[in-house]
Amino acid sequence: MPLLQNRKRRQQPEEDDTQASVELTPEPPTQRRRAQHDAGADEAYGDEYSTAGDVSLDQMVKKLVRLALACEHQRRPIRRADISEKVLGSSGSRHFKDVFSIAQVQLQSVFGMKMTELPAREKITLQQKRAAAKAATQGQNSKSINTSWVLTSTLPSEFHDPEIRLPPAAPTSEEDGKYTAIYSVLIALISLSGGQLPDAKLERYLQRLNMQDNTPVSGSEKTEKLFKRLEREQYIVKIKESGGGQEQDIYWVVGSRGKVEVGNDGVRGLVKAVYGVEEDDEVEELEKKLRRSLGIPDASREVNDAGGAASQPATKQKRRGRPRRNDGDGLEAEDEAADDDDDNDENENEDD
Amino acid sequence: MPEANEDYNDTHRAFLQAILSRQVLTFEQARPLLAKIQTAQNPDRPVLENDISREDFEQHIEIINNVLSPLDYEIRTQLHQKTKDRIYALVNVSSDALTQMSTTYSADEIAFLKRVLDAIFLSKNTRRAEILAISGMQAIRLGKIPRDGGESQARAQDLTQMQAEQMLDSLVAQGWFEQSQHGFFSLSPRALMELRGWLIETYNDRDYTEDDDDGDSAEPHQKIKFCQACKDIVTEGQRCPTLTCEARLHNHCVRYMFRAQGGRELCPLCTVSWHDALPVGEGAARNARRSVNGTRG
Ligand SMILES: [Zn+2]
Ligand SMILES: [Zn+2]
After folding, report:
1. Is A162 on the interface with B (CB under 8 A)?
2. Per-residue pLDDT for chain B (297 aa), expressed as one digit of tens each?
3. A135 touches chain B (CB under 8 A)
4. What is the pTM of this model?
5. Where is average pLDDT lowest: A61-70, A318-327, B150-159?
6. Distance (Å) from CA B33 to ligand 1 centroid
7. How many angstroms separate the CA atoms of A81 and B209, rounded?
8. E strand or H helix that includes residue A51
């Protein structure tokens, strides 16, 4: 079989004894393409920033914009360390501020997006607080190098529609829809419980969703694995706190990415979009929605229009009876909730 | 402020976000999307799906492309060679798809992918049979690095059968490969758009002597061939019955070619009758078994 190494290298003469993947040059020349294209856009764009002799700043900005999009596509945060390594290079670190702020402007003007800093991990437990205090006294400043960002939309809320912008695609949109449905509901559950959801309670929800062991998300079929991923991607975070005695308190909070991507607005939007109600303690409803969007049959009731609910907000229902607004602290999420008016909801998704 | 174009507004940004979050879009998918976006921009004047003409859509894309081009992205379009759907994809112009993929796949997986691509475009693409696709079995077998493979693969590791299967599944899921009913893997339209430059550079621009036994390889067999009508790459379609002739056509381009020739149904290059045209693509695998001369079965 003819091998790659025979390939002529026009751009980058280099040793030919490298392996296949090495020839995938990370920095292909861009000039060919740009030359072909109408120069007008180029000028209106790049030249504004590249004062004479500052071509590289322009290049760095472009690299950062492209890095941000690539990371977003893979649902990875844009890490400060990656920017140093892949964008600024060894000599460019002093340009960080300039490059970053210009890239922000470009992301916003072209894509309607911006890099939003992920909140640093909160120091929640006593141990974490102690560790942080200790690090601070020792003068360790890990903040800047650990900073990371995700892309968020800057478009007006009218455009924030899952039918316009699908959840980030990895690995496939359908799989992603399931994953998104799960973390959205988990974040909603945590938020509606006042920000902390005891592990035992989470366990109960999972049982009711028939997800205590297995999940419908391919690649994360084991619930344990799915939660590892949720934690790794900072959607939700598990906190263990030993309260002095033998007892260990285990509960879940919303992670940094969860706050940025879903957040309170997302939770409010979710609840409102699906049920046509303002925030209310409709945990049961959330479960139903999740079951539907995951296609999990609901044994207790015959309401199943398997799938699709996640992306198809229900038509506005009549407002529910209880006008009580949830002030965010406390959710009586017990089983008796909202069972009484279920019958009205049977067809809520049918005619949209 | 790089407001490159005063026509560029939130409807374009929202459309970009939409296409970024999908891999590809067809016009039919884009219509309700654009209608929704334009309605969001102007809630007082709701736009319906049917209000979006092809022209509106193309213009929308043109404006976006003008703004995107300095960043080396472009929305490109191509007809799907099998379904004939017009596919639009946001294409990374300056770094090829393999470079992008190398951030998600391991070096060994990329090396495997390269072996599969080499098979599709070299050993499964000879003068006698331009199959340009590979069966699942053959692809999985490439998980093992051929021991005569020389040094370029020396540092890569074999993939197990399961790893190779998973990689192929993933390539299909991510929209780079397509798998046919008969289990053949070929490149998706999006992959062809993203890899166009790379394919030409890798497989056409080099001294390459064919390793099949056609015997008559005095002239090199050009590996990546283009449609005489639309100029896109042909990996599925028809070829001139003259085996040494370079003319290729997509199935959906044949009638345009004939029309352009005033109704004469001849090869545009060597003027032999096109009626005995040979298949390019998976069909060539079956055809090759039956006949070498191109009499159709
Ligand atoms: Zn064609
Ligand atoms: Zn011909």
Report:
1. no
2. 444 567 899 999 999 999 887 778 889 889 999 999 999 999 999 999 999 999 999 999 999 999 999 998 999 998 999 888 889 998 888 776 777 777 678 889 999 999 999 999 999 999 999 999 999 999 999 999 887 655 554 567 899 999 999 899 888 877 889 999 999 999 999 899 988 889 998 998 665 554 444 444 455 678 999 999 999 999 999 999 999 999 999 999 999 999 999 999 999 999 999 999 999 999 998 766 555 444 444
3. no
4. 0.63
5. A318-327
6. 28
7. 46
8. none
Listed by number, the residues of chain B in 109-168 with a beta carbon closer than 8 Å to a beta carbon of chain A are 110-111, 114-115, 118-119, 122-123, 146, 148-156
Give the gyration radius of chain B's Cα atoms.
21
- Nearest-Cα residue of chain B relative to residue A168: B21
Domain ranges of chain B: 2-71, 99-198, 214-281
Give B146's DSSP letter.
P
pLDDT digit string (tens) for A98-125? 999 999 999 999 999 999 988 776 666 7
CATH class for the region spanning B214-281 = alpha beta
What residue has token string 């339209």? B189
Contact A87, A70 (CB under 8 A): no
Q: What value, to the nearest 5°, has the Cα angle with vertex A180 and ends A178 and A182?
A: 70
- Chain B residue numbers with beta carbons less than 8 Å from the beta carbon of A25 are 99
**CB pair distance less than 8 Å for A172 and B173:** yes
Beta bridge mates, B269: none
Q: Nearest 5°: CA angle at B210, between B206 and B96?
A: 40
Separation of alpha carbons A204 and A266, rounded Å:
24
- Give the single-character DSSP code of B160: P
Domain boundaries, chain A: 172-351
B41 close to A (CB below 8 A): yes
Going edge to edge, which strands form the sheet with A248-254?
Answer: A197-198, A248-254, A236-242
Distance separating alpha carbons of residues B287 and B297, to the nearest angstrom: 8
User: Rounded to whole angstroms, how far apart are CA atoms A294 and A286?
Assistant: 12
Find the length of chain A.
352
Ligand number, closest to the Cα atom of B276: 2
Say yes or no: A2 contacts chain B, CB-CB below 8 A: yes
Question: How far, in Å, CA of A110 to CA of B132, rounded?
Answer: 38
Taking the centre of ligand 1 as the mean of its atom positions, its distance from the CA of residue B174, in whole angstroms, is 25
B123/B285 Cα distance (integer angstroms): 12
Query: A142 is written with which tokens?
Result: 């890990």
Q: What is the mean pLDDT of residues A38-58?
A: 45
| Best CATH choice for the domain B99-198 from the list 1.10.260.30, 3.30.70.20, 1.10.10.10, 3.30.300.30 | 1.10.10.10
What distance in Å separates residue B257's CA from the closest CA in chain A?
27
ipTM: 0.76
Find residues 100-129 of chain A whose CB sits inside 8 Å of chain B.
Answer: 105-106, 109-113
Question: Per the structure block, which two tokens stand in for B275?
Answer: 């009626």
Cβ distance A172 to B174 less than 8 Å, yes or no, reads yes
**How is residue A301 annotated by DSSP?**
-
